[in-house]
């Protein structure tokens, strides 16, 4: 929306991005951000422009650019995370105090995070009620076409060190590059996003409601990282998905994302505190060995380990398996959900500061609309139900690939392979321990 507004002004446009070390995402998302910058720069160059990349404190860099260019207008798409909101508010106020036009625009959500409220003006705590209210709202505006008549401004000389030269944005891992799996699976950018959406709608949308829980099938959209970085908008997804039908289950997932952002808007510390304060008294265990085995996919529970290895290799994990591994950490190992939230924040390419903490609190039973803590996912039953032939497990835990469909879900009951660990904890004992801890609070 910001770029479309710039087109309307009919002034030369300078497209910029500021890499601010104080507000960078986790390691996997930084890899994606590097690719996103390169992709957008390539798209702008095809139109005769460029994306100018700067490094430093956002406010200081922006003011220096304005001083040297004489710009009288600054436009950007609105941010809703706590750090982004604070920075945007400060900058907007300062620019306007200097007589510079400063406007931010919607675009990252279907509805602004303050728009859908209860009749009394409060925040919805139950998703079904939020979703009902959201469906009653007018449909999202049709996506606007890309701007066609942009005139690009030239960048004047800037101080040494402010402009990133040679495409070295400082976002990729050093000295060891561990991103091979990410590179093999993902291609950041708008073109790849729309190709992914078209493929999903043609091949998987009709069966999404019944197939989405089976990680051995390629049945989900995998659009989350593209949404996270703005390569595609929820309005574009909504329009494409509803052109011929109304896929309720899929659209509800898009609505769940809006629900998360509406919640973060009123609880900006959602990643750090229990939304249900009674869990402040929960006797979480300090278990560095168990946490390390969970992170590495060495818990001895095949479905859990498959999910954690998929995450480490690709920066993504199937949604059903995300729930299983989260439940395992919190309830089988009795480890504080915040350890899991931080690990996902660092390893997910689609991490966003709203969905990640809300989903973790949902799994832990500590948040709004959360699964009750006493509902403990059995990773063996989940494995047998949703990966009955072990397709997903064999893909990510190859040391178990020789086992039968029946034995692969609980290999310790058969002849445990030498190169696969025994269970880090017994399921029955872990369940009793978790319920005892819950009853204490």
UniProtKB/TrEMBL annotation:
Its cofactor is (6R)-5,10-methylene-5,6,7,8-tetrahydrofolate; FAD. The keyword Lyase applies. One of its GO terms (molecular function) is deoxyribodipyrimidine photo-lyase activity. Keywords: Chromophore, FAD, Flavoprotein, Lyase, Plasmid. The record marks 284, 337, 360 as: Electron transfer via tryptophanyl radical. It catalyses: cyclobutadipyrimidine (in DNA) = 2 pyrimidine residues (in DNA). Pfam families: DNA_photolyase, FAD_binding_7. Its EC number is 4.1.99.3. Binds 1 FAD per subunit. Residues 1-110 form the Photolyase/cryptochrome alpha/beta domain. Belongs to the DNA photolyase family. This is Deoxyribodipyrimidine photo-lyase. The lineage of its organism: Bacteria, Pseudomonadati, Pseudomonadota, Alphaproteobacteria, Acetobacterales.
């Amino acid at each position: 929306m910001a770029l479309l507004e710039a087109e309307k002004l009919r002034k030369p446009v300078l497209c910029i991005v500021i890499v601010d070390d104080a507000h960078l995402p986790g390691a996997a998302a930084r890899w994606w951000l590097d690719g996103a910058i390169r992709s957008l720069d390539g798209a702008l160059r095809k139109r005769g422009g460029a994306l100018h990349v700067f490094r430093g404190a956002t406010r200081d860099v922006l003011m220096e650019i304005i001083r040297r260019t004489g710009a009288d207008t600054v436009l950007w798409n609105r941010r809703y995370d706590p750090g982004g909101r604070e920075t945007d508010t400060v900058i907007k106020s300062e620019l306007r105090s200097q007589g510079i036009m400063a406007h931010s625009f919607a675009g990252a959500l279907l509805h602004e995070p303050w728009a859908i409220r209860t009749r009394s003006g409060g925040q919805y705590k139950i998703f079904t009620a939020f979703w009902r209210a959201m469906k009653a709202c007018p449909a999202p505006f049709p996506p606007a076409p890309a701007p066609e008549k942009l005139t690009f401004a030239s960048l004047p000389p800037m101080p040494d060190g402010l402009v990133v030269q040679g495409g070295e944005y400082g976002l990729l891992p050093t000295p060891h590059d561990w991103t091979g799996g990410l590179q093999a699976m993902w291609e950041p950018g708008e073109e790849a996003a729309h190709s992914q959406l078209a493929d999903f709608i043609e091949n998987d949308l009709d069966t999404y409601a019944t197939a989405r829980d089976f990680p051995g099938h390629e049945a989900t959209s995998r659009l989350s990282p593209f949404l996270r970085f703005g390569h595609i908008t929820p309005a574009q997804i909504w329009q494409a998905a509803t052109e011929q039908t109304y896929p309720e289950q899929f659209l509800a997932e898009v609505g769940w994302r809006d629900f998360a952002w509406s919640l973060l808007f009123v609880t900006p510390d959602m990643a750090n505190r229990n939304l249900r304060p009674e869990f402040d008294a929960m006797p979480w265990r300090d278990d560095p060995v168990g946490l390390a085995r969970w992170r590495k996919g060495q818990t001895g529970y095949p479905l859990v380990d498959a999910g954690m290895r998929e995450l480490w290799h690709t920066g993504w994990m199937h949604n059903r398996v995300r729930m299983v591994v989260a439940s395992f950490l919190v309830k089988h190992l009795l480890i504080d959900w915040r350890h899991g939230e931080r690990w996902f924040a660092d390893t997910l390419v689609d991490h966003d500061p709203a969905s990640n903490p809300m989903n973790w609190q949902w799994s832990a039973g500590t948040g709004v609309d959360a699964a009750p803590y006493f509902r403990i996912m059995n990773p063996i039953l989940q494995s047998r139900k949703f990966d009955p032939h072990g397709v997903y497990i064999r893909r990510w835990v190859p040391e178990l690939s020789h086992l039968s469909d029946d034995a692969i879900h609980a290999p310790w009951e058969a002849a445990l392979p030498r190169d696969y660990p025994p269970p880090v904890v017994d399921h029955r004992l872990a369940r009793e321990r978790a319920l005892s801890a819950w009853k204490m609070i």
